What does this fold into?
Amino acid sequence: MKIITDERCAGYSRPGHPERPGRIIASIELLRNQTELPIEWTEPGQASDAQILRAHSPEHLARLNEHMDFDDDTPFYENIAGFARASAAAALTALTAARKGESVFSLMRPPGHHATRDRAMGFCYLNNIAIAALEAAATGDSRDEALAKAGAKRVAVFDFDVHHGNGTEAILLDRPGIAFFSVHLYPFYPHTGAANAGKNCFNYPVAPYDPRETYRATLAQALDDLKKFQPGLVAVSAGFDAYERDPLVQGVLVADDFYWLGQSLRALGVPMFSLLEGGYSRDLPELIFAYLKGVEGK
Ligand SMILES: [Zn+2]
It folds into this structure.
């Protein structure tokens, strides 16, 4: 398992904000101290303006340097543009690793799936998963011609964060060769994702207080539909805030469900990579570890 991280991404914080450095620091510590899963540690690398601008406007990129909060959830931090770029770069590095057939997870902050083309929101500044998916679609897969013909240019994004990936949907809407599948609570922040959008964005809203069995069945349905799309590559927005003890949300999932998600994604038999989105409980490191074990088939 390759883990892309950079302890410098713990370099910004605001007291009381749930999207805090400890999420990454504690996860790195658990992964360093375990022996079940051999890990290769990698740094994020670089993201070019051209790669970022497939998903965002130049005005948005410039706005990240203005010393003004984006909304109540999404503060301006000194050098947030640099932290957001590193997180996006890690997504691109994860894509490269997936294409080589490696198991890979980007353990970075800030998360990205709420960031739209023009707007930072919901703790997100740049949309890491959309930047990587658009890079994947633009550069195709030159590794194997047979694989390319079999649909390796089709990129699926699967988002199991408890919140709807509104930014990812807005950016990927009707982009050829890409499909977006999101399972989330509705009605709930950001109050989108009640129905499918365009030709390629498929939403699976779960009602608050629906039981765990319903949530699991909905995830399974979304994965079945994703499989029918026959992607050559799967990019996963891995959020762990549908967990029963997450402080932001009345979630219902347990650690075993994240293990099952990893296993189910592995069973697709398609190159894939995952990026950390949400997940705010103290148990986040264990949830990530459970998911990674599933992805590795341990
Ligand atoms: Zn979330």
The chain has ten helices and eight strands. The radius of gyration is 17 Å.
